[in-house]
Task: structure prediction
Amino acid sequence: MKFRSDFPLPDVVWEPTREFWAAAAEGRLVIPRCEACRRLAWYPDGICRACGEKQFAWTPVSGRGRLFSWSVVRRAFIPQFEAMVPFVTGLVTLDEDPAVRLVTLVVDCDMDALRADQPVHAVFRPLAFAGIERVMAPMFTPDLE
Ligand SMILES: [Zn+2]
Result:
């Protein structure tokens, strides 16, 4: 298998998600909102699954959500992850619309104490891997109990 030279960083110039990464670099979480039915549309694949519209406006959201599912990664499956393990990948639903589920990292947490539906909020941290540049990314951390 051949990887991009900067893999596993996200492609921040790919048009469908460029605004997402640009906002993240400024510490803001934005999601496309359908111009016709006003629903949040994620993942941004160019067409609203609710109504078929193709026009969207990038919309700031609170960054508050709930932990829908997660997995603790204890073994690096590519060399770039070796310095990160163990880490938690998660699926987080947004409070604005629980149908929006973001694939993310869950950080600053007791990984053995995570529970389903736990309130979480966005934090912005650099994705940094050995030998490649950084990209600021939204991640999530549990709310204080
Ligand atoms: Zn729509």
Remarks:
- The mean pLDDT is 92.
